[in-house]
Write a structure and sequence with these properties.
This protein is an alpha+beta fold. The protein is built from seven helices and nine strands, in the order H-E-E-E-H-E-E-H-H-H-E-E-E-E-H-H. The protein has two domains: 99 residues, Phosphorylase Kinase, domain 1 (2-Layer Sandwich); 103 residues, Alpha-Beta Complex (Aminoglycoside 3'-phosphotransferase, Chain: A, domain 2), CATH 3.90.1200.10. A five-stranded antiparallel beta sheet has the order 1-2-3-5-4, covered by helices on one side. Strand 2 and strand 3 form a beta hairpin. The longest helix has 18 residues. It starts with 10 loop residues before the first helix and ends with a helix.
Length: 266
């Protein structure tokens, strides 16, 4: 019988594993790890250490070390080209992911910032979100994976509905924010009522490597409204640029003016 991959780890398990992870990075915990709200796929913690707070991520079991390393490599690539990201610490040698008791962990610097509140995003924040999205697309257009890229849009309404129902279950069981669940419910209603166009209608859309999961909750703002970091590049992949823009607008609930115009203007 396969274990449930999305059952949250116990407090004792988290404490024990984080202590071992910190030891690999030559750090010592000085307080109880505090769960970071907002994640729906992995488990994230703010950990106070003798040398300052850090961000610890426990990856879900189906993610491989190769996938994590690919994300970390891309972080270095975009950082070198001016995109603000938080790069992981390296443990022994250049290792940025460590395995403890059959689970994988990464350790990153803690960045103190704010995320927007969905439904209350100001025009200024929407503009900054859109401007950063454009910068990311411009930078990733030069990535080798974007050379000759084409759209690979595949969908089936019935299977998509089944997937969304599963995603909703995982989100609820993982304690996802209410707006996340509401967004999933909206997608279900749209699929149930909309006329789905054939894949061939979208085959010529310009495509390239993208962040893959860009939206408002992936961006940390500074006190002056500047963007400090774009997080969670785990889902980076080739897709149509406009597809990711539409996805980001939908996730951020920027359906109307002035937010929509501010995002697209940015």
């Amino acid at each position: 019988m396969q274990p449930d991959l999305h059952v949250p780890p116990s407090t004792d398990e988290v404490h024990s594993q984080i202590d071992r992870v910190l030891g690999r990075f030559r750090r010592r915990r000085t307080g109880a790890p505090a769960p970071v709200a907002g994640g729906t796929l992995n488990w994230n913690y703010r950990v106070a250490t003798a040398s300052g707070p850090v961000f610890a991520r426990r990856w879900r079991r189906e993610v491989t070390a190769e996938q994590v390393m690919a994300e970390h490599e891309l972080l270095g690539w975009v950082a070198a080209r001016g995109i603000p990201v938080v790069r992981p610490y390296g443990a022994a040698g250049a290792e940025t992911v460590v395995e403890v008791e059959g689970t994988m962990w990464s350790l990153l610097p803690w960045v103190e910032g704010r995320t927007t509140v969905r439904g209350q995003i100001t025009a200024a924040d929407a503009n900054a979100l859109g401007e950063m999205h454009g910068r990311i697309h411009a930078v990733l257009a030069e990535h080798p994976a974007s050379a000759g890229a084409s759209t690979q849009l595949l969908w089936d309404t019935a299977s998509s509905l089944a997937d969304l129902i599963l995603v909703r279950q995982v989100a609820v069981e993982g304690g996802a924010a209410q707006e996340v669940v509401a967004g999933i419910d909206l997608q279900v209603r749209l699929l149930e009522t909309a006329l789905v166009r054939p894949r061939s209608d979208f085959s010529e859309l310009p495509a390239q490597l993208t962040h893959g999961d860009y939206h408002d909750q992936q961006v940390l703002f500074g006190p002056g409204g500047d963007i400090l970091a774009v997080n969670d590049w785990e889902m980076h992949r080739v897709m149509a640029r406009v597809w990711e823009v539409l996805r980001a607008v939908a996730f951020a609930q920027l359906y109307e003016e002035p937010g929509l115009g501010a995002y697209l203007s940015g």
